[in-house]
Design goal:
Layout lengths: L18 E5 L2 E7 L8 E5 L9 H9 L5 H7 L4 H8 L2 H4 L2 H4 L17 H6 L8 H8 L10 H25 L5 E8 L5 E11 L2 E12 L5 H7 L1
Antiparallel strand pairs: 1-2, 2-3, 4-5, 5-6
Helix pairs in contact: 1-2
């Protein structure tokens, strides 16, 4: 009977068969994600004031590797049944726009949402394998070569090693004065860090280079900064 009231489109991203579990004297609905390769379940207890809330369901869909916030946004406005039938085509067609294209008259909408910080931070090299990225790079140039994630990772590490060695030689051989500076701050997740920079004149041009960012396990005292330096 309760399922008749579940009209939010987010339910389309979960299996239609909802399990009911008992924990002591409490009952809960267990929603299992319908995404390919995802076994996440969300429990919603019936004796709470938010027993009909979809917040946790939506949060999972946004972060699920099988779905994502972009797909949820495209599905908004559809009925649960219509959205469920369309999202089944995404893994096969590989196109969000094709799956959620308007039927009949109307303009097809394209999402311009950028990757979130979490998405970018967790997969900086593997992003070159994204279907959307490859399509963007090859638009107008189908033969454009895109390196593999391992190649990008290798090249980045090589460039870092060479630049580090070049800066090291430059500082050792510099005939003039070299000035070092530190900047300390605390990140949003309460990690204390200091940045170490160097400032000098090279060929008549003033240069400022970042040498390192070091985590400090104690407060930002002069002694702690000196040890980090």
């Amino acid at each position: 009977r309760l399922q008749r009231k579940w009209n939010a489109v987010v339910y389309a991203f979960f299996c239609p068969e909802v399990e009911i579990i008992h924990s002591g004297n409490r009952r809960a609905h267990v929603f299992r994600c319908a995404g390919s390769g995802c076994s996440k379940t969300i429990s919603r207890y019936l004796d709470t004031h938010d027993s009909t809330s979809t917040k946790n369901l939506r949060n999972h869909v946004k972060t699920c590797k099988a779905w994502g916030e972009n797909i949820l946004t495209e599905a908004e406005g559809l009925s649960v049944q219509e959205a469920r039938s369309r999202i089944q085509n995404i893994p096969r067609a590989g196109s969000i726009t094709a799956a959620f294209a308007r039927q009949g008259k109307g303009t097809v909408r394209f999402s311009t949402r950028q990757h979130t910080k979490d998405e970018t931070r967790k997969r900086p090299f593997s992003i070159v394998k994204d279907r959307g990225f490859i399509s963007l790079m090859k638009t107008g140039r189908p033969s454009y070569w895109i390196p593999s994630p391992s190649t990008v990772s290798r090249d980045v590490k090589r460039v870092f090693a060479r630049v580090r060695q070049r800066i090291s030689n430059m500082l050792r051989e510099h005939p003039g004065r070299i000035n070092f500076a530190t900047d300390a701050w605390t990140s949003p997740n309460h990690c204390a860090v200091i940045a170490i920079t160097v400032h000098f004149e090279y060929g008549g041009v003033p240069l400022s280079l970042l040498l390192d960012v070091v985590e400090v396990t104690t407060s930002h005292t002069g002694e702690a900064l000196a040890r980090g330096f």
